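Thread: Newbie trying to understand structure tokens

Hi all, I'm a second-year student working on a class project, and my supervisor (Dr. K.) asked me to get a predicted structure for one chain before our next meeting. I've only ever worked with sequences, so writing a 3D structure as a token string is new to me. If someone could post the tokens and maybe explain what I'm looking at, I'd be very grateful. Here's the chain:
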Amino acid sequence: MSSSPTPARPSRVNLRRPEVMELVQAEVENHYQSEIVEKVRSRAGRLTIGNTTIRLAQAFGFCYGVERAIDLAYAARRVFEDREIYLIGEIIHNPEVNRQLQEMGIKNVDGPHPDKEIKDLTPEDVVIVPAFGTTAEMMARLHERGCQVIDTTCGDVMTVWKRVRKYADEGVTSIIHGKSYHEETKATASRATGPDGRGHYLVVLDLEETDYVCRYMEQGGDREDFLKKFANAYSEGFDPDRDLIRIGVANQTTMLKSETEEMQRRLGESVRRRDGGSTENFKLFETICGATQERQDALHELLKEPMNLLLVVGGYNSSNTSQLVKIGGKQLPSFFIRDADCLQSLEEIVHYDLARKQEVTSYSDALLGEGPVSVGITAGASCPNNLIEQTILKVFSLRGVPPEAVSAA
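---
Reply by user tm_fold:
Sure, no problem. This is what the structure looks like when written as tokens:
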């Protein structure tokens, strides 16, 4: 019996038509924009009422890639109003934004409880690829089904894909600084094997793992122990004795910039020592996204002035947001909150603990007392301004300043 022919790939559709985008912009602004946030931003990121000061980082919240992904999802809903629309996982790592899409009737086609299986998609279905992309295998499956694909993958992520494909073409193993379970890193790794599948990759999480790889490259070691340590973080057929000879560094675009730079330095120095001073077998390409750098740099600048505590607002599974928490936590009490509801009282804060990988409740006296209090606020690239506004209002409210006073300030 012959197999069914692969459906023809649907023609491209221009979603960003002026008449569509005018409606989309109004809808997006209604859902996510904030006059209060813009007011604080216009005042050099500082708002003081009574004895309470809010300080905003100069760069925070939605980046261009996130804005584009949201715009395309909203536009798809309008252009394909009579068709079923599905999203691969989450458009971005923020529950508020994903909730809005669900309320617009956009369903899920990947994950633990999908509304539809990939194998059941038809050419009439529309599928949105999220901002951090998806694997090459997933894209192939979608094209096999013949459905309309709306690809919102960020351009910075695609730049990394091009780099790891080039490494594969040159016979260079990609060392990817990232989280092996993260959607973006999975998508990047799927391109690192090249079109013929002969390339290789190794995902390295942190400096401890980097040092382990460096020791192995220079001194050798137990191959089975290596493979066990990096289980599920390397390409099929990867052999550390063979595939760590020529390496090239890339990264998940949302990692901590300083850690990526140090990882690159250590790997480069290790190759140089191993190869008698030569770095011919080491390739380097900076792939931290500009928005991630801007938000990290802005937080470093914010931390130059004394504050009582820092609130970092965003989805708990947001990698770039977690990096901001790490930066802040080195200098002052820093709390990773999902939204304003996490501020239970002047003392009680519900937040995500990065070390324990779970939401916890902590008690702090940083907001207590009649004396002056300064609270820093920043947010990851996937956090909308309306959540930042709610956080500002909640801090002032807990300190006895009503919302109308904040609006009138």
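A couple of things are worth pointing out once you decode it. The chain has three domains: 34-62+291-408, 64-153, 156-288. The mean pLDDT is 94. Feel free to ask follow-ups in this thread.
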